[in-house]
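Researcher: Quick one. two chains, 1094 residues in total.
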Amino acid sequence: MSLLFLLRSSQRIPFKSALPQIKLLRRQQLSSHSTPLTSCQAIDSIEQSNSTLNAFVSYRTKDDIAKSEPQNGPLKGWPVGIKANIAMTTASTTCASKVLEGYTSPFKATAVEALEKAGAVIVGKTNMDEFGMGSKNLYSKYGPARNPFRPDDTVGTEIYDYSPGGSSGGSGAAVAAGMCRVALGSDTGGSVRLPGAWCGIVGYKPTYGRISRYGLVPYGSSLDTVGIMARTVEDVLSTFKAICIPDHRDMTCMSESLRKRINDMAKSRPWVNKLYEVSPGESLEIKQPLKGMRIGIPRECWVEELSEPALESWKAGARRLADLGCEIVAVSLPHLPYSLPTYYTIALAEASSNLARYDGIRYGRRSSEKPDDLHNCNASNKYANTRSEGFGVEVQRRILLGTYVLSAQTCEQYYIPSQKIRRLIQQDFDSVFALPNALHAESALAKSRLLTSRPAGVDALLFPTSTNTARLLESKEKNQAAGYVNDVMTVPANLAGIPAISVPAGKKNGMPLGLQLSAQYGDDELLLRIASHLQQ
Amino acid sequence: MTLRAIQGIRHIRVLPLAPVVATAVTGTGRIASARERGSQYLHSAAIIGYKPKAGLHLRGRCSYSTSTNTSNTNSAEWKTTIGLELHVQLTAAQKLFSTASAKWDDSPNTNINMADAGLPGSLPRLNPQCVELAARAILGLNGQVQPMTSFDRKHYFYSDQPLGYQITQQLHPIGRGGFIELGPGDGFQYTKKVRIHQLQLEQDTAKSIHGVYPGYVLTDLNRAGVALIEIVSEPDLDTAEEASCFVRKMQTLLRHIGVSNCNMEEGSIRCDVNVSVYQKGNDRLSGTRCELKNLNSLKVIRGAINAEVARQIDLISKGQVVEQETRGFDARGNKTFLVRSKEAAPDYRYIADPDIPAIRISNGWVNKVRSTLPELPEATRARLQVQYGLVQEDVETMINEPGCVQFFEQSANGRDPKRVSSWITSEIFGQLSYRTQNLTDNPLTVVQFCDLLDALASDSITSAQAKQLLINFMDGDRRSAQELIQEHGWIIMDDQAQLNDLVSKILDEHPKEVAGYLKGQKRRLNFFVGKAMEETKGQARPQDISRIVKQLIDARSK
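Model:
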């Protein structure tokens, strides 16, 4: 019911979105408007700015949209963008890859189905890194998407050469530039949170299994989640409510009973329930709406790569939460430093497996080149041309690495230790949160932790989304691994399966920064509530 | 797989960290350790040519090959070790991970859904019926359903593999343990238990069709994703005969409990065999295992094993190394040939399937499945011998024919069981062999058969007439025994005077035979009985004729 509270109150809050006008963007102003974005306005701004930002890879015409009346529901008339790796029957689902050129799915993703049922109007498919592999939206067959924000010193020029972040860069740029009100992305290692931070919007990765993955083209299946991007936490929440449903077509989607168990457990915290009694709209009058909450600052996130502006915004965020009544404590997640190599081992191993099906035989693009000796080569050679031509350079690199870590000689060195470290990272998170992990909740220990008095442990964690502001698309990394460092703050939540959200946290030289909140497995509702207070 | 626990998966709580992963993923441990354990069962290769006891009913059973080439070597120092992998198609109506029909022989590419074709964004969904059938199979083998089972991906590129990997169970198969017992009932002079290493669920591949369009290989996805169980035996088998008997008994069992129809010709049961030969004191050269693939009949299984054993013994005798490799069998040339060397073996890169959560199986569920199992063949075998006093040969014959035990028990109710079983195993099975039919395919009903037996028992027909009646029934005549008897005008001729006249006439016509009989050629008696039965069109009782013949000849000789 507290979610309903938020919903109702969100309607009272003026929608802080901008009319999508490039002029406004030039002035670096995303000013508030009291009227929500309509699908017509969205199409207008796509037509106006997509050639510059390359956020959408395909979009509908106004006539097409006018043909059908949106269904009645909480999102009625909301213009929504869908990442190019989420299956739809009305537009191609290419994952920004040549290998899926011209491929239109015969079925709809569960999330898309649910959005349409809630009344949303899908305006188009958004750009992305090929198969979700990248942090800058650089590796796309459609060319890179561009960040609508630019440093103050380049304002006045026509140059938009900063990355919107990746892999859901198209979704991020589209929401930031007012081309849609909400966009669906996918988050395997930070792919909605990093673009959220770099584009100055909210990027939300729910608990693994909250939203069905049916129809989401997999990258790393055990890490993948459908993510939501919007200007405000309230819009994220409304969208989340509409698509957070059990789905028997995805065996990893949370069952009804697990959802209920989590809900019962989450509601058994009196210190949190106090928060639910106050609606965010009233928070302005109430001095300390988050009183009683405890926020953890993970020591291990203070990494060498962290830039001064990111550190400053982190400190400011902590101060703000303290002002809102939170108790701020330092916590330790000792295995966090291992999360980046662990993530890249597991994600790439799964990717090498998930991408094995793109052979050009049943669908997608097939190479016209014939192998030299058709009759005497084995099957993988027959596929080699199709796969070499179809996959981009980064995807090929990741498939090769993933194949390597799963090979007989190296599996024990890389893949199996990574699985073990992943478990340790997840246990680190369990040890700092006050709420027990619902997947372990049947142990007596977990039950005993649910006391009426405040147990040890924090309710959420606060840390930067990215080590710095958006990077130039063209910037050269010292080596390939340096490009992966951007993910250092975001991958732990995917490894642990816990929810995380990036909210805008000020700007440096005109470029947005993001702060990240994360909470226990299944504690999405509390996380969104705290985030709604943190957003400025 | 340990990490699945993190992700909000049904049925799962905490899975233990898996140190086992390390050994199992590499897959090296299994065969080696299994072989060590199997050593207590090792016998000398000399038994390969073992012959069955004479007089066994061999219907539906392997016919034993008589001999094999054990070279000029001293057989006592050779030990052959054989392990089997059976792939068995389940009778489930739908595929293992999709709701498409499992009818793989329908019109090509008609029974497919998103997951079977590997469309982007599609996900597998486990069919509970397949889990239940696999559980039935392992329980039927006296093995254990595992409390936790999970699925793995086995990667290789092939046009019959739409996902680029097969979903199988490498680490946590659904079943472990169990055995099949071979013994005197199967024609062996000893008893041995062939242990089951594991039983796992996995996907069948699509069908590749070669040669229809020159230069193209066509793919029919109907079979892609159909549920299989793979049953891996311990290397407890020593001879080709044991191996083929094991397969035959497995077929009988799986059919009996409704898990599969186990039809080898249709490929619903497929067999791979691992063979190694060990020479005592020659650890360096001997003991390497070769895998024989795609053996599609019991005869081929025996032939391939014998040929491979001979090849390996020959190599080792010449001081050459047996390479670990995959081989095929050329039945015409009666030899095995290289298919793939160890170096060319693909690295399957097993990975726990992240789309399919591990499954916890409760004892309650296992017990429920167990309670639906019919009586297992071993128990039936013992019961038939004790309850009905049948001889082992008849029991074996009936057990190996689907539906026969039930047919027997219904017919034997209130009748002489030995007589009933003898009618079934000689007359009915004789007719079935002649018609190359199975009992369940024949229209003969229990009621018809019982009427026949009763008419025979009450002496209202002769056994010759009864056999004719049986033929009518098995031809599909649906009338009752009484109607047919009336139509044939069958009555027993027991008018003594009439029979006396008839026999008298026959004796007059054959003075030579009479003379012979009198000289002591007692089997001439059968000649006269036969003649008389011919004359009466089988309506007289042979024992009556025989009595009268004796009386009349005796009277004449005096």
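Chain A touches chain B through 70 residues (CB under 8 Å).
Researcher: Thanks, that's what I needed.
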